[in-house]
Amino acid sequence: MNRPRFRWGLIAALAAGLTLLAPSGHAAPETLRLNGAGATFPAPLYLRWFRDYHRTHPQLRPDYQGTGSASGIKDLRAGLLDFAGSDYPLEAAEAEAIPGGLVQIPLAAGAIALIYHLDGLDGLRLSREALLGLFSGGIERWNDPLLAAANPDLALPDEPVVLVVRAGASGSSLKFSQHLSAISPIFGAQTSPSMTPAWPRSIQQQGRMVAAVGNDGVAAMVRAIPGALGYVQYAYGLLPGLQMALLENRAGAFVAPGQDSFAAAVTAIRADRRIETLRDPDAADAYPIVGLSWLLLRRTYQHPAKLPALLGLIDYALGPGQQDTVPLGYIPFDAEGLAHVRALLEDLHGSPIDPSR
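RESULT FIELD:
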């Protein structure tokens, strides 16, 4: 699957042509570039926002590359980026290492979906016990009794389950492994929830585990391999129309990923803000794996126009851009969430965020 990219070459060529036709004595406005990279979790949403904002602000050229949270943070620290995407907020010590100071804001909310490739077998249900069994190595084939018990109407094949996981450090891996560890502390002790989970070596030795770069890479691999199962941000299953499993939640209900189950999860987390609820929401109709992605920007920039430009871009994301969240598979921020993000930006210099939008 090719990653979506802006066609800046064509835009630049058109801009150059218009400049040649401009009357002499009138300098063309300076083009301001904003370079970002990082988490693939929010990438489809960021790309849509940046494209649409550029259309009404042609002098601004924002770019975002989905390279993974760890890579984005590394490049921001090295001064190679103006902003980065991360699926987890940095600790104080890490934040202090960012030149120019750091502000972290949650800007995208979404969910982790389990995508699979079993032709003609839609509506797969994965119980909590089965999910643990698949990623601990206890379940090796699709017709395993644990999988069959939750799917009496599906003729599951006697074929190996090929797990597709993320290569390298990944915020999606962190969210998924934290959920598995919330289901089973024993699994957490063995696998160690992190951006690079220690998946059982036995699965790899059996040739049933494949690693792919980025959410888009996992989605492409699952689509290409019959019998594959992987975890991705929901948009990467929704937009290409991949099969997505119903997951058993903490209340014992099988729930499909979607806006209603996401909203129920957010409501449950707001009512009980313990870390256990964040990683495994406790509500009858809640989808069990939801999370946030953060935008990391500097407090100060050498170029005086960059901070106001970024604030304008964020203002768009918090305003008109919210209409893009649901169609692209993300969770829109409600009034409380929008107010929280705006409050995090209040002490920044530059163009103020307009609370009326």
